[in-house]
Amino acid sequence: MKTILIVDDEPKLTEVISSYLKKEGFQTAEAENGKRALELINSLSVDLVVLDLMLPDMNGEEVCKIIRQESDVPVLMLTAKVKEEDRINGLYVGADDYMVKPFSPRELVMRIKTVLRRTEGSQLLAEKISYNNGQLVIDAGEQEVFVHDKKVSLTPNEYKTLLVFARHPKRPFSREELVEKVLGYDFEGSTRTIDQHVKNLRQKIEKDPKAPQYIQTVFGVGYKFAGGSNV
C-alpha cells in the first residue's frame, strides 16, 4: 500500500484529499507546514508528496528544493497561481506535476496515479550503462545516475527523460513524443515542460550545458541523445 504525504495548512482540504485517496487504497500522512513535511519524509516511507505552495512557515517551492536535495520522491504541487511561468518555475525546482486550485479531488487522485505509473518500472536493457569512458553512468538497478563518479539527484521525470534518450541513442525525438513517453498521453500541459526537464538535465549531467555533449537540440524537431556508450 502506497503512502501519500499531503502538505497543506487547510484542514478541511486535507481531510477531503485524504478521504478520496483512502477510498482508492492509499495510505495518507498529513503535515500542516513545511518543517513537519520534511520531518515525515525523513521518518516515513513516502511514495508521493502533494505539496501546497502557500504554507505558513515556508513556501512550497523552498520545501521542494530541500526535498530534492535528499530524495527523488515524486512531488505534485498545488497552487493558486495560474500563470504558466509560475508553473514552469515549480517544475524547475523539482516538481513532477501541478494542479491549480480549486481542483477536483477525483482529478487529483487520477493525476497522482498517473505520476506514480510513469515514475515506476523505468529500466534500461542493461543493468548499468556508461558513456564517454565512465564520465556518465546510469545504474538502472539502483535507479541512480553518476557524473564523474558523483551521484546526481534527478527528479523522477528527469530520470525518465534521460532513460528515454538512453534507450534510443542518436534518435531524434519531438517534444510531443517526449511528452507522451515521459508525462503520459493524457498530459494536458505545455510542451515547454519537456524543455524545462531537458534544461534541468543539462545543468546536472553536462560539463557545459550551453554546449551539451549528451542531450543535443535537433533544430526543427526536438532533441536527441548523442552520448557514446561503453557498457
Automatic annotation (TrEMBL):
GO biological process entries: regulation of DNA-templated transcription
InterPro entries, sorted: CheY-like_superfamily, OmpR/PhoB-type_DNA-bd, Sig_transdc_resp-reg_C-effctor, Sig_transdc_resp-reg_receiver, WalR-like, WH-like_DNA-bd_sf
Gene Ontology molecular function: any one: phosphorelay response regulator activity
Modified residues (4-aspartylphosphate): D52
Keywords: DNA-binding, Phosphoprotein, Transcription, Transcription regulation, Two-component regulatory system
Domain Response regulatory: 3-116
Segments forming domain OmpR/PhoB-type: 128-227
Gene3D superfamilies registered for this protein in UniProt: 3.40.50.2300, 6.10.250.690, Winged helix-like DNA-binding domain superfamily/Winged helix DNA-binding domain
Localization of this protein: Cytoplasm
Superkingdom of origin: Bacteria
Alphabetical list of SMART domains matching this protein: REC, Trans_reg_C
DNA-binding residue intervals: 128-227
GO cellular component: cytosol; protein-DNA complex
The protein's name in its UniProt record: DNA-binding response regulator
Species this protein is from: Fictibacillus aquaticus
Lineage of source species: Bacteria, Bacillati, Bacillota, Bacilli, Bacillales
